[in-house]
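It is worth pausing here to work through a concrete case rather than discussing structure prediction in the abstract. The textbook approach is simple: state the sequence, then state the predicted structure, then interpret. We follow exactly that order.
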Amino acid sequence: MLVKNKLEVLVVLNFLKIYLTNGNKEISENIFRHSFSLLKKIKKTNPVNTISINVELIKPFCEIKSLKISGSNYKVPTEIHPIRQRALAIKFLVLNSLKRNEKSACRCITMEIFDTSSLSSQSIKNCDDIHKIAEANKIYVQYRH
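Step two, the predicted structure:
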């Protein structure tokens, strides 16, 4: 697999690291190789480029941290570093692809990526839920350290 961009290499390596099944790297590489071939058949574009575009779509810009202040818990929205944003986006993609009911693991990953590019996947809903919680609790930003 030829990858030209350093960012795309990081995205693929993070995918493999998160998707690692029972510590066997060969199995996860084969699953991704098959899902890349399926993506190439469906979208007729470079699958690595498609994944990196989808990761950019899912990136959350903030995160919710729970702080205990004077006996009560507050959900405080905090900004995230871009590396953490990318890691969370990849984690959303992988975990939601594992929850799908498809015949094979490579088909699950392919369909989750395909649904993300059409803006109808569970990963985008997760990101939107985080943003809604942050919007509701933006008055607690003053407690952020």
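Step three, interpretation. The chain has one domain: 6-143. Strands lie at 62-69, 72-79.
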